[in-house]
Specification:
CATH class of the largest domain: Alpha Beta
Structural class: alpha/beta
Order of helices and strands: EHEEHEEEEHEEEEHEHEEEHEEEHHHHHH
Number of strands: 18
Radius of gyration: 21 Å
CATH topology of the largest domain: FAD/NAD(P)-binding domain
Shape: globular
CATH architecture of the largest domain: 3-Layer(bba) Sandwich
Largest sheet: 8 strands, mixed
Distance between the termini: 55 Å
Amino acid sequence: MRKNYEVAIIGTGPSGAFAAYNLAKKGISTVIIDKETLPRYKICGGGLVYRGRKMLDFSIDEILEGEFNQVDIFVKDKDVHFTPKREMPVISMVMRDTFDELLVKKAQEFGAELLQNSEVKSIKNGILKFANSDEEIEAKFIIIADGALSPVSKLAGFEDDRLLIPAIEYEIEVPEEDFVRLSKSVRFDIDAAPFGYGWCFPKNNHLSVGVGVLKTKAKVKLKDYCATYMKDLEINTIISETSHGFVIPITPRNELVKGNCFVIGDAAGFADPIVAEGISNALLSGKIIAEAISDGNLEVEKTKEKYIEKVNEKLIPELKIGIKLAKFFYENTTIRNLFVKKFGALAAERLTDVFLGKSTYPSDYKKKLQEKLKISLPWM
C-alpha cells in the first residue's frame, strides 16, 4: 500500500517536528515519521535557549523543567566566574521526550500525520520503504531530520563531511542537599575537559551533567573527564545514574540538498560550535525549510534555491564564525586566558545576547581580538 503526501519528514526531534508544524499550518499535506514510538528518550542536555523558545508561537509551560534568567560561566584554568543576568529566561530546561512529543502534537493539531515505529530502509525516486512494514510513502519533498548520526541521509546518498565532536551526559539523582545547591542556576565550565567544557543543567528532580570536547583526533577519556568534573561540582554521592555517549555535529554539510531530499537540524550539522547547543538552530532550520517549500510554490527546484538562500542568510555565516571562535577558545588557551582575564565579563554578556537572539557572533572577530589584545593572530 502506498500513501502520497506533499512532504514526508523523517525524525520527530525539534527540527523535524517544527518543520511539520509550520508546514501543516500552511495547509501542506505532511507526514512525520519516526522509527520509535513517542514519547521516547533522547540524549540531550535539554537546554532551550531563548532565541529558540521565542520562535514557538504556543506555550510550552506544561513540559518545562525549569527556567533560568542567569547563566553561570566558569573558566577553570583561570579560576574566574561570570554570571550574566537577564529579565527573560536565558535558558529553559526541557526533557526531550516530552518536548518533542509536544511539538509533534502541535503539528497534528493542524493536520500533520504521524507514522511511528517505522524505520526507513530505502529512499528512491521520492518513495520511502520501511524495514518492518510493506507500506510505502511517496512524497514530493523528503526532509531528513533524524539527528546527529542520520542514517537516512546515508540512504539518500549524502556525503557526511560534518565535524562530529564527542560528548557524554549523565542523568543523575543526588542527595537533596546537593540538588538544592546545584539547582539554582545553569552552569557551563570551560576547561572541565581538555579542549572542551562541562555543563550542569538542573531538571525537576535530577541533574543533567556532561562534558564535550572539540579535539576529536586525540584520545578522549570522556568518563574520566566527567568523573573529575563531578568532583569539581562537589558531587560525592550519586543515588542513581544513567549515562549516554553521543556526538554533536558542529559544522554544516557542504551539500544540504540531493534531488528532492533536504537535510535539516543536526542531520545538516547546524549545532552551535561554541557551546554545542542544537535545539534553537534545529527549530530555525525546521522553520526555514517550511518557508522555502511554501515560497517555492511546492516546486522542487525553486524550493532548493529558497532553502539554500535562507540557510546561507540565517545560519551558515554564524556557524562558520562560531567554529573559528571555538577553535580559538578551546585550543589556544594561553591567548584565550589573556583575553578572558581582561574581557571575560564582556564576552559572557555578548554570549548571553547570542543566546537571546539579540545578536550574532561578530563577523570581524579577528580584527576585534587583535585590537583588544594588541597582538597578531596569524593562525585565525
